[in-house]
Amino acid sequence: MNPNLSIYDNLGGADGIRSLVEAFYPRVQKNALLAPLFPEDIDPVMEKQYMFLSQFFGGPALFSEAYGHPMMRARHLKFPITPSHAQEWLKCMSAALQDIGVDETLREFVIQRLSGPANHFVNTPE
């Protein structure tokens, strides 16, 4: 991990973020807790996630350019998200980072950075 670069650049820019999203969603679709929250046609979700993560990790503001301010909590309120959902989402993301060959230091940093938003989306008790 190069501390002088953004997370976006440390992950390999657009290609790295695309690889991460492509490694992440098959795990989500196989996850018994998470899969019911997602549509069968996952492609639009993957594209939005690619755009959001690009922006969130310091790359181009693709999501805001296409959809306006992310307002991610508000966008997720229609889904019942428990603390367990947040933890499973983070586990899938960690595994996807490992799948694409992200070293442990960067992987832990990315998961730490995503933990705040993941837990912020929680809107339903267990």
TrEMBL record:
Tagged with keyword rRNA-binding: no
Gene3D superfamilies: Globins
Keywords: Heme, Iron, Metal-binding, Transport
Recorded GO MF terms: heme binding; metal ion binding; oxygen binding; oxygen carrier activity
Domain of life: Bacteria
InterPro entries recorded: GlbO/GLB3-like, Globin-like_sf, Globin/Proto, Hemoglobin_trunc
Family, per entry: Belongs to the truncated hemoglobin family. Group II subfamily.
Xref: PANTHER family: TWO-ON-TWO HEMOGLOBIN-3
The protein's name in its UniProt record: Globin
High-level lineage: Bacteria, Bacillati, Bacillota, Bacilli, Bacillales
